[in-house]
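Methods, example record. To illustrate the input and output format used throughout this study, we show the complete record for Glutathione S-transferase. The sequence lines were provided to the predictor; the line carrying structure tokens was produced by it.
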Amino acid sequence: MLTLYGKSPSINVRKVLWLLDELSLPCTQLDYGSGFAPVDTPEFRALNPNALVPVLRDGALTLWESNSICRYLAAREGRHDLLPAEPARRALVEQWMDWQATELNSAWRYAFMALVRRSPAHADPTQVAASAAQWNRQMAILDGQLQHGADHVLGQDFTLADLVLGLSTQRWLMTPIERPVLPAVQAWHGRLCQREGFQRFGCNGIP
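The corresponding predicted structure is encoded as:
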């Protein structure tokens, strides 16, 4: 039996929950994180020394980092539509997943913490504006990729790249910043919203 440690409002936990839904995999979820069971304890740090969610346990395996968890689950279930077996195609999926975790996440962090989380440590308006501008520049890169005319980030097939980027795009759309019009992103997000898993864990009113 799979066990997922992490609260549902967490964007990274929702990645895993959405994928579990796509895979029709049963999983026991334990609510950990701010407002729920604490993560800064010796017991939780034994699962993840970073004291962050999500953490997945599958028998003797304990795994953290949301994108790694998603890769593992897709491979575990043999879902080569989500994570291709062919090296070049898989590398492209992982490229966009890594971009989401590094370039895109780094861009939005300050603005999101200031405008949505209301963090006192993120109250510098100059840095908020710079973060929002960089966020918009990164989203324009995604829009350029989606302008190739296919339904999804890497063609006609829905992959893990769409899943992880879909959650980030939902956050971009729900954070109160000035945004450029990105038609390809908007159309793609609309297609994602037709998926039942994204309805539950993506376009559900949680940024």
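Annotations derived from this record:
The longest strand covers residues 2-5.
The helical segments are 11-23, 42-45, 66-76, 87-115, 125-146, 160-174, 183-192, 196-201.
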